[in-house]
Amino acid sequence: ATRPVLRPITPQPVELPELAVFMTGDEKVIHGENVAIKVRVVNSGRAAARDVILDIVGNDQLLKTLPIGAVPASRSVEVEIQLTPQVLGQIDLQAVAKASDGERAVAVRGMFVGKPELTLAIAGPAKVNFGEVQIYTAIVDNKGNADAEEVSLLIMLQGKEAQSLVLGNVLAGQRRRVSFELRPEMGGVLSLNAVATGVGGLQAVANGSINVMQQQVELAIEGPRTLRFGEAARYTLNIKNAGNTDAENVVVNVNMGDSVLDSLFEGTLAMGEKKQVMFEVSPSRPGNQTLTAVALTGSGTSAAATARLQVQHGQLELTAAGPSAKFSGGKATYDVRIKNVGDAAAEDILITAHLPDGAEFVAGVDKIDFYEGVTWRVGTLQPGEEKNYPLECLLEAAGEQSVIFSAAGAGELTATHKVVTSVEALADIRLYVADPQGLVAIGEDAVYEIELHNRGVKAAHDVQLKLLLGDVIRPKATEGLAAQLDERGVTFETIERLDPKETRKIRVTLQAIQEGSHQFRVEVSATDPETFVASEGTTRFYAKA
User: Fold this and answer.
1) What do you get for the CA distance between the two ends of the chain, in Å?
2) Strand 473-479 vs strand 399-409: parallel, antiparallel, or unpaired?
3) Can the peptide bond before residue 125 be classed as cis, meaning omega within 30 degrees of 0?
4) Integer Cα distance of 326 and 429 in angstroms
5) Where are the alpha helices (DSSP H) in 283-361?
6) Could you tell me the CA-to-CA distances from 184 to 120, 171, 187, 245, 269 in Å, in that order?
7) Model confidence pLDDT, tens digit, residues 52-90
8) Which of 45, 168, 358, 406 is the most exposed place for a label (fewest CB within 10 A)?
């Protein structure tokens, strides 16, 4: 019979996966912020772990499930999971890896979820004076259980940035105080806002207001904007305190150019009070000028008002045209023109011609005798109006002779013009012969008077005088100048120099030897300048019965 065969069987090892889980991440996180958790699933077994699923559990509550898939033997898979914790305090995190064959591994890690909570308050005076610097304090409290990072503080006054401060980190439960200065630049109730901000959109706000007391003085000038030069005009200065508090020690000055009217008003203006002050302006010069009023208060504030004034005035333009050259003793005619080139009437105008020495006014204008020089009235010229006048005079002195014309009018209006005429001097010999009146008997003395006069402005040199006679008249004697007598006439001694305005008188005695009307001739010649003058006449002689 066949016997059964018994053999021992060696058991074969079973190949299984073996999972392990490791979890890393921040131990402290901020509530509401995303947190990155890194989980590494390690398979240290001989078989692959299939259909692995990773669960993230916090305080026994499933937070997230992530399929991993297969994890090969002796391999690992690392994943990063984003979490946003929604609870505060300590959280026990578990990373649970489960495979389809029932393999399971767990990693545990603690996480503290905190949240900063800022509060902000501003402390300081609620009522301040305009322009004064005041100190305020910002109080920042972190009432949360986490630090507030990179905290900054922005102070806004009436919607404009006034201060920007950096506080840095404010620890959980910490209070920070920081002081800052404010100087209001406008009056009234101003809004004061402060905002504290930190990392993660952290924010705290404080709102308030400051009542700024301001002495607001306002000025306004009333009066004419156009006035005439030389005339005074009245103005009214309106002063008002438009601020929300009394204005004390107010001083108001008014100035125009270098002229200053000090302390036109001085005193206190209650809130809303108005004052009117009158003053007078007399412009010191024509043209455009600025009238300025300035107010200063005891607190250092100021106000100003200006008025642009057009000071109109007449402006004289005087011109004259005359000869550039003339002979001495000749008439010179000057054409004088005066025009008002200003923007206002020119009144009470007089023109004066200042003549050089030796000159003589002849005609042309209605001379006013009691004024210096040759003065005549023009009267009033409207803007743009002009008048012309001729002036005639004699010029005697040799050389460059200047006639200066000057015009003057009301309001210190003046104008001048000068005309220069070159005057050439001449000697001008005038010859005058006086023969006997009526009939002269033959054989009786007939006396002739000869007069030489230099009416020029220059001496005449080498003056030669001759008396020419006919055959029937005989010279008998001469007086006043030596002479040679002969049957043809008389030749006088040469006069070497006959000065300006000098006169020489000569007498000649003659006798006729035959009756009838007999002619005589007197001739005068000179050099430097060359001169020749002659005079003829007839004397009637008769025979005695």
Assistant:
1) 249
2) unpaired
3) no
4) 19
5) none
6) 22, 33, 7, 15, 22
7) 999 999 888 898 899 998 999 889 999 999 888 888 888
8) 168
